[in-house]
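Re: weekly structure request thread

Next one in the queue (231 aa):
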Amino acid sequence: MYILKKRYYYSSLFWSFCPNSFVILIIQHTFAEKITIMKILFLNASPLRRGNISQMVNEMSEEARALGAEVEIVEVQRLMVKPCIACMKCRTSGYCILPDDGSQHVLELINDCDALVIAAPCYWGNIPGTLKLLFDRMVYGLMSENSHGFPIPLQKGKRCILVSTSTTPWPFNIIMHQSHGAIRAMKEICRYSGFKIVATIEKGGTRRNTTLSEKLRQRCRKAVRKVWRKE
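Done, posted below.
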């Protein structure tokens, strides 16, 4: 997002005398300075406002604001999104024929953002159904297809961070593809959409460890710094 700031440096007053008139000419010199404001969108797919996922989102969003980014947080579980009906019309028309709901709003935010953070707890070694449903409905804005049916990414140039948690203790949350399974599913979506994944964060054993360690807080903040960039 770019904002043009006008700076008025000085005005020159010229007096010109003519036989029958008096002319005052004011020339105002203006310059435009291009200022970059990075927009970071957070998709929080946890239903728990004080859970580990929400704590990590809060930690990252605070760091993003401290860096000067414009932050938007979407609570996925609280969106009203109807299921995809597999009519495939969005693949040719470029828009969804279903009535407007939360999916169109989120897609607008994705199109407008510079970086995306997707944070989701592990459900059956995968992402929550609400998040999957949301991405099903937004597919036409994330990827297209060529004449042979191969995907064409539509979000190239944007960066993303993927976050997941699991009650399965570390390192089994990774070995048994629990939080790791959720990360894998999110990677699939982001790679085909064209996002560059700059960091992934996984936490296991959330049943006992309900708060973030200082080390994990620092990892969250470091991840945000990886997506931060000046144009």
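The radius of gyration is 24 Å. The first strand starts at residue 2 and ends at 17.
Next request, please.
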